[in-house]
Amino acid sequence: MKNLVNRISLVGSASAFLLLFTLLVPRAQAQLSDQEARVGIKGGINLSNLYVNDVSDEKAKFGAHAGLWAKIPVAAVFAVQPELLYTTAGSKIGSYTNVQGSQQQINFSLGYLQLPVLASLTAGPVSIQAGPYVSYLLSAKVKNLRVDNNGVPTTGQDPSSTEVNRDNFNAIDYGLAGGIALDIKGFQLGARYNYGLRNVGQTFLAETVTNGSKNSVAQVFIAFGL
């Protein structure tokens, strides 16, 4: 009798699973069929920082990003979203004490060509995006800063002092990106955070000035499918 009950339970469970499978699979297929690979343009505002150590009055820097994006469906709620963007990074140091004891404001402005490849999990109109990125440094401008041969900031009056420029920074940056977006048929409105995993400084001079800092960029963006 007990075996009969177990068999009936097993058959009932299998039937329930088969019914659930029959109901859900067509819905998933329909949802997937409604999704198409999309490409488009996007842009937005950046708020970046370098988190330079031992410096007072450090300020985040406003910037921008713009470029192309694509969304490639893989499953009913899962897609891969690669992008190719021009994006800015950097920071403002409002109060930096040089060796002469005077205060200077230093402005780090970095421009990158960035390639994020994100996994996109979409539930209704909400998309959660996360994945790695790699960037190539196109430009680096550092205002109001010159350093001596030891990497110590000076007033720039020393004829042996040099400017910190692109050659002093790592050409390749990489890190992790994650965010959330309203995602409706090719239109996206969202926010994202990029966390750099590599020091921005390459040479001794840049490493001394930035103290092992990495890129940190918060973004608000809008994207349109073409």
Automatic annotation (TrEMBL):
Keywords per UniProt: Signal
Domain Outer membrane protein beta-barrel: 29-200
Keyword check for Signal: yes
Keyword match Signal: yes
Signal peptide: 1-30
Short name of any one Pfam family annotated for the protein: OMP_b-brl_2
Entries under InterPro entries matching the protein: Beta-barrel_OMP_2
Name of the protein: Outer membrane protein beta-barrel domain-containing protein
Taxonomic lineage from the root: Bacteria, Pseudomonadati, Bacteroidota, Cytophagia, Cytophagales
